[in-house]
Amino acid sequence: MSAAPTSTTAALPTSEQHGIKAHSDGRFGFVPVQTRNDRFKSVDVADFAPVTGREAVWKLSPVAKFTDLTAGELDGAPYDVASTPTDGVAIDWVGRDDARIGSVGAPEERAAANAWTSFEKALVITITGEEDKEITVTRAQLGTGPRGAHAIIEARPFSRATIILENTGDARITENLEIIVGESAHLTVVSLQEWNTGAVHLANHFASVGRDAYLKHVVVSLGGSIVRVNPSVRLAGPGSDTDLFGLYFADAGQHLEQQVYVHHDAANSRSRVTYKGALQGTGARTVWIGDVLIGRNAPGTDSYEQNRNLVLTEGTRADSIPNLEIETGDIKGAGHASATGRFDDEQLFYLQSRGITEDEARRLVVRGFLSEIVQHIGSKPLEDRLQAAIEAELRSTDEVRAPAPTEEN
Amino acid sequence: MSVLEIKDLHVSVETDQGTKQILKGVNLTINEGEIHAIMGPNGSGKSTLAYTIAGHPKYHADSGSILLDGEEVLTMTVDQRARAGLFLAMQYPVEIPGVTVTNFLRTAKTAIDGEAPAIRSWIKDVRQSMTNLRMDKSFAERNVNEGFSGGEKKRNEILQLELLKPKFAILDETDSGLDVDALKIVSEGVNRAKANTGLGILLITHYTRILRYIEPDFVHVFVNGRIAEQGGPELADRLEDEGYDRFLVDSNVG
C-alpha cells in the first residue's frame, strides 16, 4: 500500500473532466474551490473584494460589526507586551523584510490581509534550548482603535517550550500569527482570550510542523464581544504531530468562533482536534468549523477531530461543522464527531439524589465537561487559573438562567 | 426512631400515549432497622415506587402522601429528600463525565452533612469502604460510572450508601446483572451499612436470589400498581416455588 495503484490514480478526477474546468462557452467562468488547500491567498488587502457576509469564511460571522477591521485603515504600530525574561526565549520586533514573515502562511480573507498590509513591525518570539520552559506574553493595552498586527513564534529544532499568549483589556484587532515548529521541537502555544466586554479580536494562526516535531495548540476564549481565532496547521514533516484543543464559554450576546484547519502534508503525521464549548444567555453564539485535509503525500495519517457543545440556557446558537477531505486511501485512521446538546436531566437527577443542589449539580456537570480540555494544557498554574475562570462564568449562569419551575408534586 | 410511611399513593407518568396511571393506592410503613422486600413481576410499578420516593421529575404523585418522620416528602426537591435521609441505589446509574468518584463523594457528603467532612477520617472511611467492596483504589480517580462494568456500577452505589449513611435506602433491582460473587459482595455491603447505622431498607427485586444474602423482615408482593399480598420471609420462599402466576390471573399485567 505504499504506492497508490495506477488504477486508483486513473479513476481520480482530471482537469479535462466535465465540471472541473471552466466551460468553454465562457459564460460560467466561475469554478468552485475543489479542495481546502486551493483557496485564494494573498497578503494584499486590495486583492480581496469588500466583505459581504456571504463568503464561505464569513457567512457565520457578524461582519457588519467590524467593517473597520475588514475595510478600514489599521494602526500597525508595535504595542506594549509584558513578559518575564526567560532563558531560551527571545522577544523582538522585526521589520517587514524579515525572512520568516510569510514563510508559513498567507491570508485567505480580507481582515487577515488588511492586517498583513498594515503592520509596521512583527513581534517575534524565538525559542532555543532543549530544556522545558514556560513564558506568558501579555497584551493588556491595545486600546479601542482598530489595529493590525503580525507575530511569529519560531521554535528552533529540538527546542521545547510552552508559550502562553494572554489577551486582556480592550481591543479591536485583526492579526496573523505564524508558528514555525522546527525539526523535533516540542511546542505548546496557548492563546488565551480574556478580553473586556466589547472587544473584537480576529486572528489567524498559521503553523508549520517539521519532521518529528510536536505542536500543542490551545485556544481558550472566555471574554470579548466577538472573538474569532482560526488556527491552520500544516503537518509538513514526516512524523509530525499536533493536538489542537479549544475551550470556549459564550455568554449573552457574545460571538466566539473558531475555524480549524489541519493539513496532513507528510507521511505518518498525526492530528487530534478537540474543541468543547458552553453557551449561556440570549444571543450567545459559537461557531466551530473543523477542516481536515489528508493530502496525497500523507500516507500513514492518523487523524480525528471532534467538537462538543453544551447548551445551558434558551436563546443560544452553536454551529458545528466538521469537514474531512481525504486524497489518499493509505491512512491509519480519520474520523470526526460533533454533538451539541443541553443538560442531561438524568445526570442532574443522579447528582441531586445524592443531596447536591440543582445549581451545584449543574456546575459539576459543566466543570466536568470542560475540564477535559483544561487538563490537557499541561501548565498547572494556568489550569488552576482556568478552572477558577470557569467557576466565575458558572456563577454568572445562576443569574442568567431563568428560575427553575417549582416542583408540582 | 425514624419511620417512612407511604399512604394511599397514586402515581402517573406521561407517555406518548397520554397519561398512564401506574401506582394505584400503595400503603406501606417502614421503621428504622427493618428490611422490606418488594417483589413483583415486570411492569407492576416497583421501580415507579422507588423513583417517586426519590423525586424523579418524570413521575407525578396524583394523590396520597409519603411521610418521613411526619414530614411530607412529596413537596421536597430531589436534593432535599436526600438531605432528609433518603437514598436510592439505582438500577442504571448514569455516567458523569469529568467528575471523579473522589470529588463526587466529597461533594455529596458535604451536601448531606451541611459541612465538609474532616479530611483525614473521610479519606480513611472511603478507603475502608472501597476495600470492603473489593473496589480497586484506582476507582477513586475515575469519572463517576464512566466505563464501569454493571457490577462496578452497583458496587459504587453501595459505596455511596455506606458513606452517606441515610435513614432509609431504596435498592432498585440492585441484584440485576450481578454474578454470584458480586451479589455476595454487594449484599455484604448492604448488611454492613445496616449493622453500622440501623437504617431501614426497601429492597426492590424481581428474583428471590438476593434474599438469600439480605434477609427481609417483611415481603410485599406488588401487582398492578398496589400491594397484593404481604407476609414474612416465608412468602419469598413460596414465590420462589410458585412464581407470580397466581397473582396475575385477575390482573391485566402481562
From TrEMBL, chain A:
Pfam families the UniProt entry points to: SUFBD_core
Domain of life: Bacteria
Cleaved signal peptide residues: none
Region (Disordered): 1-23
Entry-linked InterPro entries: Fe-S_cluster_assembly_SufBD, SUF_FeS_clus_asmbl_SufBD_core, SUF_FeS_clus_asmbl_SufBD_sf, SUF_FeS_clus_asmbl_SufD
Biased segments, Low complexity type: 1-15
Domain SUF system FeS cluster assembly SufBD core: start-end pairs: 149-369
Stored PANTHER family: PROTEIN ABCI7, CHLOROPLASTIC
Family: Belongs to the iron-sulfur cluster assembly SufBD family.
Protein name stated in the entry: Fe-S cluster assembly protein SufD
Source organism of the structure: Cryobacterium algoricola
Upper taxonomic lineage: Bacteria, Bacillati, Actinomycetota, Actinomycetes, Micrococcales
UniProtKB/TrEMBL annotation, chain B:
Domain ABC transporter: 4-249
Superkingdom of the organism of origin: Bacteria
Stretches of the chain forming a coiled coil according to its record: none
GO molecular function: ATP binding; ATP hydrolysis activity
Keyword ATP-binding: yes
Keyword flag Aminoacyl-tRNA synthetase: no
Gene3D superfamilies according to UniProt: P-loop containing nucleotide triphosphate hydrolases (3.40.50.300)
Protein name from the UniProt record: Fe-S cluster assembly ATPase SufC
Organism: Cryobacterium zhongshanensis
